[in-house]
Amino acid sequence: MKYAILGGSFNPIHMGHLFLADAVLSAFGYDRIILVPAYNSPFKPGAEGASAKDRLDMLIASIPADPRLTIEDCEIRREGVSYTIDTIKDIRERYRPEGKPALILGDDLARDFHKWRSADEIVSLTDIIIAHRLSAADIPFPYPHKRLENEIVEISSGNVRDRIGSGQAWSYLVPTGARFIIEDRALYGLSKEKNAGITRELIAGIENAVHTMISPSRFLHSRNVALLTRDLCVRFGMDPLSGYLAGIAHDMCKSLPEAELVRLTKKDGKPVLQLERKKPTLLHARAAAVLLRERFGIHNKDILEAIRFHTMADTEMGPLAKAVFIADKIEVSREQVSPALRDNGSFDDLDALFAAVLDETVAYLRSRSLTLSKGTLRLLEVIKGTKG
Ligand SMILES: [Fe+2]
Ligand SMILES: [Fe+2]
To answer: What separation in Å is there between the alpha carbon of 261 and the centre of ligand 1?
Structure first.
């Protein structure tokens, strides 16, 4: 296997790094790029904001399912100041590359390369590739090398850090996985949001899985439910990330066969109701709560309860469950929603909005002579009782 090495601080990794790796792969026929994050680059003393672990986590989150890229953490494990010569020897020893590995250098490093420890030995052990980073002109480099004729991508880690620190747009200059880590861990001067232990990184993994489990249009419905639940959480003082997660996952079992729904539902320890036996597709709600707990390790009671109750309203519903129920019924892709509910800004408390949505849902079910669950009937009585 032919390898090329791309070292750096990756503080943070950005699209310019990945574009450069991709350009080397297509220009010179290497099989794989080894990304080597420095523990502490000798050329960037004091580059602050993210720990070695943060930087490594951001790299890992940036390259899922791409077999052309790999990450080597030898410099971080060695700690202290990293010298490229040590890394090259280590990689040659363990990876056993076919021919010499390439060493990719930006032209910003080319000028001072002769000062690097064992520069001559580096040259003899690798094929050096000089890439344009600062200048479209060829910066002189007095050692054997190849030139990558790449376009300059005007992104640098320092620029990304400055943009984050000064509130300018930066989100799509870095891979999405890295962005979620920056936001979850409040790196580079972002302010930390409170959350209930639910992170964007966690949600992104679950969202990708949900996408593979249901049809694209069902997924878009789920995303609309996630967005509206999140908005309701902001409006009514609940955790927005919990709301988003409950919304994105609520229909994740919608395409599972009935036997699988029954098998999963048994694990929640509650009896199967007569109505559910008659119409097992209703179980997709309870099955999703079980799957979210068992496969994805989500134990947050409010989230699991919100998913569980979305097909059958019940008196036990808490605020988050009400928000998911509302969002599921009135999100933008739903067709038969009254103007009063579409334009629901006049409801200043969640219970009033929930009661109005439930009214419409019950009227619809009754118009089609569909059965209401006992829980829903009890809930209607409770709501009527408080109303009057
Ligand atoms: Fe559903
Ligand atoms: Fe739904």
So the answer is: 13
Query: In angstroms, what is the span from residue 334 Cα to ligand 2's centroid?
Result: 10
Query: What is the Å distance from ligand 2's center to 328 Cα?
Result: 5
286 CA distance to ligand 2 centroid (A)?
Answer: 13
- Up-side HSE of residue 317: CA atoms within 13 Å toward CB? 30
pLDDT (0 to 100) of residue 387: 57
Instruction: Provide the whole-model pTM.
Output: 0.89
Task: State the Rg of the chain over Cα.
Answer: 27
pLDDT tier at 41, thresholds 50, 70, 90 = low
Q: Which DSSP string do the residues of 335-350 spell out, in sequence order?
A: S---HHHHTGGG--SH
Q: Give residue 385 CA to ligand 2 midpoint distance, Å.
A: 29
Going from the Cα of 218 to the center of ligand 2, the distance in angstroms, rounded, reads 8
- Of 236, 215, 250, the residue nearest 328 (C-alpha): 250
| Other Cβ atoms closer than 10 A to 75 | 23
Look at residue 42 in the predicted model and tell me its pLDDT: 47
Give the integer Cα–Cα distance in Å for 242 and 299.
11
Distance CA 127, CA 114 (A): 16
Ligand approaching nearest to the C-alpha of 329: 2
